[in-house]
Amino acid sequence: MFKFPGDFYWGAATAAYQVEGANSNSDWWEWEIRAGLKDRSGQACRHYDLYNQDFDLAKQLHHNAHRLSIEWSRVEPEEGKFSETGLAHYRDVILALKERGIEPIVTLHHFTNPIWFARRGGWLDRSSPKYFLRYVGKVIRSLGDLVRFWVTINEPMVYVYHSFYLGDWPPQEKSLFKARAAALSLVRAHIRAYHLIHDVYRRENLPAPYVSVAHNVQAFVACNAAPRSMAAAYIRDRWFNFGFLKRLIRSKSLDFIGINYYTRSLVEPANWGLRSMLIDTSSRSTLKKNSMGWDIFPEGLYELLVRIKIYRLPVFILENGICTGDDALRWEFIRGHLKCLAQAMGQGVKVLGYIYWSLLDNFEWDKGFAPRFGLIEVDYGNYERKIRESAVKLSQVSANGILEDEVN
Questions:
Q1: Mode of pairing for the β-strands spanning 9-13 and 65-69
Q2: Which residues sit opposite 317 in a β-bridge?
Q3: Is residue 351 within 8 Å of 10, Cβ to Cβ?
Q4: Is the preceding omega at residue 358 within 30 degrees of 0, hence cis?
Q5: How many CB atoms lie within 10 A of CB 326?
Q6: Which domains, and CATH codes, for the chain?
Q7: Which residues belong to the active site?
Q8: Rama region for 21: left / alpha / beta (φ>0; ψ in -120 to 50; rest)
Q9: pLDDT higher for 331 or 269?
Q10: CB neighbours (10 Å) of residue 311?
């Protein structure tokens, strides 16, 4: 048995574009049409209208925290023109959480951009941090009195990898040079936003906020002992897991380390070329997998948390979840990761909380609606919600903070 601290945060996450619906001023909305995706986001989960219902369910599941994102394109649909209606909506959403005793953890950028920003060049534009900062300042001054936890950017390296390295997400660039340029823009944007958020809180005499990013990490494991595989695993770990993070650590722009963890990559490059080194090529894994073929490897979370301990900052698990049609496997996944989380905490890693991805089934980007990550099932025909058994089992842990030993 493991007892989590009494002030531990338990909850689940959503991202605006994936659940709200009708985000027609976003670059993703435009790209879905242009790319001819089989599934388009459309009304998504209608969370924009049904958030009170969804938060009632979260409260029923003993959640005391919820991670959400603000859709930049709703707040600034045209360059330099802010929507007071959009800001008022998000204020209502955050107040709805607080009325239920649920701590809001607010993300400012979760993969999507306003169309006007994308047409300016997006994160390849050298002025992109300036535009982001203008948006951040407006949001913080409008909502800062309600929020303690801010996440500036969600999974910057995932965004860079898919949008500028693999080129399978908008703007579908495929260039190592452009990937590096976008990553540098995101670093600068976070650092400047970090200081701006703290400055606004000081000026408005508010208690100091907690600001971070949500950084996706993976366990990179060499497929064999061959030098090429070992080198590729090392390069990917250094580039994807720690390169961006170390820049922010050096700049002292993190109040905690936000971690998203899902899987491992079994690495076996086809050749010594850098592109091969940075792309998964092995399919030899025999581990259980989610419905998108990702390995289930809780041990990787433990190992990464122990390594991150050297930075002497608290850690917040901001995403951890599984898409599957087998709800028993979902609970096995959750329980396995909570066990490894407890082991890391036993090694002295300070963890603030555990946020499951996701509260609801949702629009999973270019994969559409087929992947089912939700603690709560969504019927996309009538938008009815149904709590899954895995959610009930997690709620039993979050209710008293006790992870019981497995019963054989």
A1: parallel
A2: 259, 354
A3: no
A4: yes
A5: 15
A6: 2-403 (3.20.20.80)
A7: 155
A8: left
A9: 331
A10: 14
Residue type at position 287? L
- Can you tell me which residue has the tokens 């890391």? 344
Q: Is 70 exceeded by the pLDDT of residue 382?
A: yes
For residues 106 and 69, the answer to whether their CB atoms sit within 8 Å is yes
pLDDT score recorded for residue 300: 98
Please name the residue ranges forming H helices in 61-167.
Answer: 72-75, 84-99, 115-119, 128-143, 156-160
Report the pLDDT value the prediction gives residue 269, as an integer from 0 to 100: 84
Q: Are 346 and 3 in contact (CB under 8 A)?
A: no
| Longest CA–CA separation in the chain, Å | 60
- Which of 233, 236, 249, 240 lies closest to 310 in space, CA to CA? 249
**pLDDT tens-digit series, residues 101-133:** 999 999 999 999 999 999 999 999 999 999 999
Strand partners, 12: 66, 356
What is the model's pLDDT at position 278? 73
Query: Could you tell me if residue 37 is left (phi over 0), alpha (psi between -120 and 50 degrees) or otherwise beta?
Result: beta
Identify the helix (H) or strand (E) that includes residue 261. Answer: strand 257-267
Residue 18 pLDDT > 70? yes
Burial of residue 225 (CB within 10 Å: 0-12, 13-18, 19+) is: exposed
Please tell me the predicted confidence (pLDDT) of residue 283.
66
What Cα–Cα distance (Å) separates residue 227 from each residue in 13, 239, 265?
A: 39, 18, 17
How far apart CA 268 and CA 261 sit, in angstroms, is 21
Where residue 280 falls among pLDDT bands split at 50, 70, 90? low
**CA distance linking residue 281 with residue 269, whole number of Å:** 6
Residues forming beta bridges with residue 266, ordered by sequence position: 221
What would the two tokens of residue 32 be? 């879905």
The mean pLDDT of 233-243, rounded to a whole number, is 94
CA-based nearest residue to 371, from 362, 380, 384: 362
Q: What is the pLDDT of residues 203-219, one digit of tens each?
A: 999 999 999 999 999 99
What amino acid occupies position 295?
A: D
| 154 neighbors 177 (Cβ within 8 angstroms) | no
